Amino acid sequence: xxxxxxxxxxxxxxxxxxxxxxxxxxxxxxxxxxxxxxxxxxxxxxxxxxxxxxxxxxxxxxxxxxxxxxxxxxxxxxxxxxxxxxxxxxxxxxxxxxxxxxxxxxxxxxxxxxxxxxxxxxxxxxxxxxxxxxxxxxxxxxxxxxxxxxxxxxxxxxxxxxxxxxxxxxxxxxxxxxxxxxxxxxxxxxxxxxxxxxxxxxxxxxxxxxxxxxxxxxxxxxxxxxxxxxxxxxxxxxxxxxxxxxxxxxxxxxxxxxxxxxxxxxxxxxxxxxxxxxxxxxxxxxxxxxxxxxxxxxxxxxxxxxxxxxxxxxxxxxxxxxxxxxxxxxxxxxxxxxxxxxxxxxxxxxxxxxxxxxxxxxxxxxxxxxxxxxxxxxxxxxxxxxxxxxxxxxxxxxxxxxxxxxxxxxxxxxxxxxxxxxxxxxxxxxxxxxxxxxxxxxxxxxxxxxxxxxxxxxxxxx
Length: 462
Hints:
This protein is of the alpha+beta class. The strands form three sheets. A six-stranded mixed sheet has the order 1-3-2-4-12-7. Strands 8, 9, 10, 11 and 13 form a five-stranded mixed sheet that branches. It has a two-stranded antiparallel ribbon with strand order 5-6. Helix 2 crosses helix 4 and helix 13 runs antiparallel to helix 17. 45% of the residues lie in helices and 11% in strands.
């Protein structure tokens, strides 16, 4: 049974719920309405000698809850790293973990119920709404006193996530967008493997040819998170999604870009119709990174975040190819950018904030922890850790390819997407809804981009 609803109207309602629960005034009512449909987190405890029951915890012991989303591999690796820390520091750690699809619904319900986890993973899109509502603890004091060590971290990284002058999250690593592909299908179709500098037309031609020669389709680009696709298209024309002040969308005024985006969306809709791209039902019918159809050889190419590459390759059983996203045909700039997409945050209601900050420091700065976690949350922002991982990854082709890919992207582009303005959560939900509707033929490509721009400008106040 599909995890994602196939009725787009129902899907839109679910998507809108995610950002609505964090708006002031309406948060409690909206979250409680959705509680019956929220999947529970899985729970795991540390392996200390205590049985972790409430009765076993004494007043002088520290107990923290750590929450994240991801694949089963991420769950296993993060638990292994945190179990080691709990044993060394003699503290009790409870774990909450879930898939991306259910994580924020559950987190919103916990926010309403005043039961937020102590340390939790956040995405670049969701940090500011939570910070605006006072959910996130200011981390600057713990950075200043060295509890969170930034000795080997570039200063620009620390300032990457602030709200009203407060550092409200700490980056887990640097990632980027990428295309993962199966070399064998390119060879069977008589095609050379794709390389940096290819165009959107090159991508479409490869997808068509592989399908004609092998019967293997490719994925619908970033159907599960449209903003990553649109960000790359917009970067092809030298724009960022938001203006520097976050109050406008300058790219929406560029008629040539809008025409190019419309043409690309038409290619996607045609690809779905002709079969060289999978159906939207299939495109939405996966939950975790290791469920992506490329891990079973069902598709030839998939647009992914680069930190997912190692997980995909391990699930597939050998190293997938990886390359940059194609540039829009008439674009004059790179489609690529660096992103700090995942962050660690501390709840403002945490009873042991210093201990929580130590947990974050361990996750991002400890060599043992980073060896467990690898590049799954991006390539470490700690230069010393990066060097260590590269030196020790020679026998791990999946991790090595991830590290080398980010190294190449960093040499190619210096653009780093920072935290989005508070309105971004709603804007990206609108974009996802329109893109999905277009994939299901409920909108034409022209209607998709026109509808989004109209609603976005109204929302952002232009």
